[in-house]
Amino acid sequence: MTRILTSPPRTPAAVLLTLLVSLTSAAALTGCGSSASADGEYGTGERTLKVEAGQTFSLKVPAEAATGENWYLADPRPDKDVLDYRGRRDEADSDAAAQYFDFTAAGPGTTTVKLLNCPNAQCHDASASASPFPKPTDPPRPYATATGTANPDDWPAYFLYTVTVD
Q1: Fewer CB in a 10 Å sphere around the end CB: N or C, the chain?
Q2: What is the layout of strands, in order, in the sheet containing 97-105?
């Protein structure tokens, strides 16, 4: 939330802070759908993206392979005339592990990227059902939905990203 100053700033530091807040707010408002970090990364809470033709970007998702959590690009794949899928990569640092799905905006249009989140080794590739294979004696489990929450949980889920390329 942006705080509005009711009196003029008195110090050069206050003037600089006011200018920085104004520029940051303006940049956030011009994102038209979602804002990426400076390196073109979008997280799981950003599902409607607007990018320019030729722009490269990544969908960054939390993943801990050691605990059996993986993500997969599921079918149907994004329209190749709109997005060029460049591959998936895994990275870990001291804070957290993540998987990145890298794309280049190929041409104008809108397409959907469908990612399957598979926590706890409940599925092993994109062709698997988002619902684990229960035994007949298992209690019913919820099926994965196309509207997974911003924070993945312990159940397989589809995460849909709508990408518009100008």
Answers
A1: N
A2: 41-42, 56-62, 97-105, 83-92
Taking the C-alpha atoms of residue 20 and residue 41, their distance in angstroms, rounded to an integer, is: 22
The conformation of residue 147, written as its DSSP 8-state character, comes to B
pLDDT score for 150: 64
Q: What is the C-alpha to C-alpha distance for residues 69 and 35, in angstroms, rounded to an integer?
A: 26
CATH fold for domain 33-165: Immunoglobulin-like (2.60.40)
Tell me the per-residue pLDDT of 65-81, one tens digit each, with 9 for 90 and over.
Answer: 788 888 999 999 999 99
Residue with token string 């100053």: 5
Q: CB 15: neighbour CB atoms within 10 A?
A: 12
Q: Looking up tokens 């709109």, which residue turns up?
A: 82
pLDDT at 119: 87
Q: Which amino acid is at 117?
A: N
- Two tokens at 53? 């033709």
- Where on the phi/psi map is residue 87: left (φ > 0), alpha (ψ -120 to 50), or beta? left
Query: What are the structural domain ranges in the chain?
Result: 33-165
Question: CA 35 to CA 80: how far, in whole Å?
Answer: 23
